[in-house]
TrEMBL record:
Domain of life: Bacteria
Name of protein: DUF4149 domain-containing protein
UniProt keyword terms in alphabetical order: Membrane, Transmembrane, Transmembrane helix
Organism: Deinococcus aerius
Membrane-spanning residues: 54-75, 81-101, 113-132
Amino acid sequence: MTPLVPLLAALNVLLVGVWVGMYLFTTSVVSPAFTELFPDAATRTANRRLVGRYYARVNGPLTLLLLATVLALGVTRGFGGALLAEFALLLLIGGLVALHVRRGQAQARPPAWITNLTLAASALLCAFAVVASA
């Protein structure tokens, strides 16, 4: 085992924690606050889009770094079941985020099922990241 593996494993768990933390904060704090701060749907939607653009500037590179870390772990240590599950969940979450953005552009707010499924996948992502990094 290369000495890089423990560092990659720790980075994997850290990045998953940051990613999920950002998502939880946005879902649990920012979105409800916007509903109270901006009762007008058009103003709320405009502000959501603005925050979304800033969010994407951080979340995009973070997600790419997480994906690269998972792939690096797989290459250096092998793709076990937990790491493959984590990779699959990252792909699922990426698709859900894309759907969230697409639906959010068409409506004032994306459907709740997208958010709920992303939250569930994020919880599983945390679990698999810990198992894969052990």
